[in-house]
Amino acid sequence: MEEAVKEHNNEKEKQDKEMYDEELLIRALRQEDLDLFRSEFTQLHSYDQAKFFSKVEDELRTRLYHYLSPEEMAELFESLDIDEEDYQELLAEMNPSYAAEMLSNMYADDAVDVLNELDKEQVVSYLTIMDDESAKEIKELLHYEEYTAGSIMTTEFVAISQNQTVRSAMYILKNEAPNAETIYYIYVVDDDKKLVGVISLRDLIISHDDVMISEIMSERVMAVGVSEDQEAVARQMKDYDFLALPVVDFQHHLLGIITVDDIMDVMEEEASDDYSKLAGIADLDSIDRNPFNAAKKRLPWLIALLFLGMITANLIGRFEATLDKVAILAVFIPLIAGMAGNTGTQALAVAVRGIATGDLEKESKVSLVIREAGTGLITGTTCGIVASLIVYVWKGTLFLGMLVGVSVFISLFVATLAGTLVPLFMHKLKVDPAVASGPFITTINDIISTLIYLGLATLFLNYLI
């Protein structure tokens, strides 16, 4: 009895965690029980619908297209969290007219995100089938350059005139709200459609019906240019805790808005992109289950690092005479190179993060370099002294301990500076600083530390023999 109760509780906990009965939905699909499936499925949150849609097998998934209307599928599609290349496969499963109607029912910015993953011929085909109004709206957004404010904004927003009353504004809001992506902010425009103010939904509701909008709106409205980089927009929304941000052209005409859910996607995308570059991998947005595709993404960096590694090998070869006379020197090459590489990567992470988050704009680059140089001096001195003592106790040779300690000190100091200056230099050249990846900076510091260590050893060779 206790086991049965326990099993029942475990099953209930599992269902509570899933928020839906997956087995019931699958059984309804297999038995083609339309009424049971719709009664359960349409009650779910769009996130849970998307999660079920992603997990169900292909044969049953195609049945969903007959059980759900294009409008219902559009809401589900907006919540999908799948690899970009999978959109093409999913749309291919649908009837073209069904897919086009679904895309036209999605928010324009979300539909554009999907269409950007398709071939141009497919995009033209879907736009041709769509209704004219949706197609026109999507075409306008498709023209904007990727990764800019224009590419992630939505045109489904509510705008009111400054020369109208609260009563008429509320009438417009009630009519347009069902199609708007958000109504927490209502933007105010003049007769030329230029952005002149903003009013919150709360202020609009509590104001008297006959008050003019121009009297209660806030003229201090912050906006972003349509060509502004999406990362800068994300930073601005984070700094000011906005739920939405208006997008304007160079003449300050209101073109669209960017909502917080789009910015969360941007932040995730940018973080993944930076981490990919820091790891020396072309793309970490998706997990490649095909080993050949995964290898294809990693090989370019690995081959480049292979050639850099050959420089290190050639450098060690040039000190062959020194190593022949004092073979014990070879034992400490990995230690010094490894510590320099790790230190450089730490400094690199600090610099790249400062640039990515905008924190570096609040602090001068000179201050950052001075601070990191001081950090390099402290860590280099500490690690150098510890290394000297360990080598002296281990090998019983004072000068060898001093050589390793001094090499560690100089290598860590130089590696810290390199890890800071390289991304700053790339940022100045308008190159993504994350390109100065961990593997890249580690290999560079291997070369520098090896040159310092073996160079000092050759210089003071007589004291080592």
From TrEMBL:
Gene3D superfamilies under this entry? CBS-domain, MgtE N-terminal domain-like, SLC41 divalent cation transporters, integral membrane domain
**Localization of this protein:** Cell membrane; Membrane
Q: What is the lineage of its organism?
A: Bacteria, Bacillati, Bacillota, Bacilli, Bacillales
CBS domain span: 153-215, 217-275
Query: PROSITE patterns, alphabetically?
Result: CBS
Q: Which GO terms describe its cellular component?
A: plasma membrane
UniProt protein name: Magnesium transporter MgtE
Which InterPro entries does the UniProt entry name for this protein? Answer: CBS_dom, CBS_dom_sf, Mg_transptr_MgtE_intracell_dom, MgtE_N_sf, MgtE_transporter, SLC41_membr_dom, SLC41_membr_dom_sf
- Can you tell me where the transmembrane regions are? 299-316, 328-352, 373-394, 400-426, 447-464
Q: Which NCBIfam families does this chain map to? A: mgtE
General function of this protein: Acts as a magnesium transporter.
Q: Which domain of life is it from?
A: Bacteria
GO terms for MF: magnesium ion transmembrane transporter activity; metal ion binding
Membrane topology term reads: Multi-pass membrane protein
